[in-house]
Design goal:
Layout lengths: L2 H9 L9 E2 L10 H17 L4 H18 L7 E4 L2 H12 L6 E5 L4 H10 L3 E5 L8 H7 L4 E7 L11 H8 L5 E5 L18 E5 L11 E5 L43 H17 L1 H22 L2 E2 L12 E4 L3 H10 L2 E2 L1 E3 L2 E4 L7 H15 L1
Parallel strand pairs: 1-11, 3-4, 3-5, 5-6, 6-7
Antiparallel strand pairs: 2-8, 7-8, 9-10, 10-13, 12-13
Bound molecules: pyridoxal-5'-phosphate.
Length: about 375
């Protein structure tokens, strides 16, 4: 099947395409029919059967862990389901527990999720890596790391410029005695390959709600084996291996990442996240990456011709799904695009578009035509 007919077929799964030229998939990914169908089916079962609906949903919880793990070449035993990327990074920070006198290295290019947990909740110094040309240099990260560094916490793909960090190169620059490496992969998973074994990552945090096509309210943290014995910062009945004993006096913690789960998770979200990941597997991440690369390259070439200030690095290996640029009166451009039913983002004084596999070259051309008209 040609790409065009495959795209036409896939667009039918995304009702948003009938209403918008939707180019903000790295922010809130629109809901696909199989995702809303799965969530509706859970709600109907719950309405009609009460607790009976929960058993298949618990099963979905287990399968979701397996799918998250498979995506990053990990084992389900290392996965904690969380409510968001933010909750996942906070859990990682609680497990690292940086002390006064230590430091944590973060990047000025990243989202608040990667910096606030360390800034607000722990006494260690927080050091910010400066960005250059919309990217990070691994040697700049390494220059801030010393024997008192408890963790380096950065995005695999930064949310502003869309810069993609070379994780093996980062680990190599930090050397064999490196601090814990905590990676926010919210803008990476579902688009580019991330393997928690290469380099061995201590923590990886993500949400289901962006490129994994699930609902908000579900995310996960990958916890490497060497942190699995850590005391959980919170505990609940799901943390206990002896839950079946109903022993309120003794909690025997699971020896895997389940010890960091608390109570009943957001099951309607879990069911939706599982459907999103299933769809991703069916479509194929590699094909998605190739489609996104074609569309973002087309957008970048068009924007270059229009002479706007592009913040996103141009090299294929230094970007993923995001394209960011600045131009005069960008708020007016954003309003104009919205009036033309073209949905993209605006922040940090610019415009961001995140096309995905169901978008078309014609949609990018329509976007570029409005930028051209705005600049005239
Ligand atoms: C890189 C990155 N990390 C974290 C977040 C926040 O995710 P969550 O709401 O799941 O905490 C975002 C949201 O845009 C993001 O782009």
């Amino acid at each position: 099947m040609s790409d065009d007919s495959r795209v036409a077929e896939l667009r039918r799964l995304f009702p948003v395409t009938a209403h918008w030229n939707y180019l903000y998939n790295g922010s809130i990914h629109p809901c696909a029919k199989p995702v809303s169908d799965a969530m509706r089916a859970f709600l109907a079962d719950w309405e009609n059967g009460g607790e009976a609906a929960f058993f298949p949903a618990y099963d979905a919880f287990g399968r979701l862990k397996e799918k998250f793990a498979r995506l990053i070449h990990a084992e389900p035993r290392n996965i904690v389901i969380t409510e968001s990327t933010t909750a996942a990074v906070n859990l990682a920070a609680q497990l690292v527990r940086p002390r006064a006198g230590q430091n944590v290295v973060v990047s000025e290019l990243d989202f608040m999720t990667s910096t606030y947990p360390w800034l607000v909740c722990h006494p260690a110094e927080v050091r910010f890596v400066r960005s250059r040309d919309g990217g990070l240099r691994v040697e700049d990260v390494a220059a801030l790391v010393d024997e008192h560094t408890a963790a380096v916490c950065v995005c695999a793909v930064s949310v502003g410029s869309g810069f993609r960090l070379d994780l093996p190169a980062l680990a190599a620059a930090l050397g064999p005695r490196r601090p814990a490496l905590a990676i926010d992969a919210a803008q990476a998973l579902g688009v580019v390959e991330v393997d928690v074994r290469r380099p061995p990552l201590d923590f990886l945090a993500c949400t289901a709600s962006k490129w994994l096509m699930g609902p908000a309210g579900v995310g996960f943290l990958h916890v490497a084996d060497r942190h699995l014995q850590a005391a959980p910062p919170a505990a609940g009945w799901l943390s206990a291996a002896n839950v079946g004993e109903w022993d309120v006096r003794h909690c025997r913690l699971h020896d895997d990442a389940t010890r960091f789960q608390g109570g009943i998770p957001n099951l309607v979200g879990v069911v939706g996240a599982l459907a999103g990941l299933t769809l991703l597997e069916e479509i194929g991440r590699e094909w998605i990456e190739q489609r996104i690369r074609t569309l973002t390259t087309h957008a970048l070439q068009g924007l270059e011709r229009l002479g706007v200030e592009i913040w996103t690095p141009r090299a294929d290996h230094e970007r993923a799904g995001l394209v960011f640029f600045r131009c005069p009166r960008h708020q007016d451009l954003h309003a104009r695009l919205k009036a033309a039913r073209i949905y993209c983002g605006t922040f940090l004084g610019g415009i961001r578009l995140d096309p995905t596999f169901y978008n078309t070259h014609e949609e990018i051309d329509a976007f570029l035509a409005h930028v051209r008209a705005h600049l005239q």
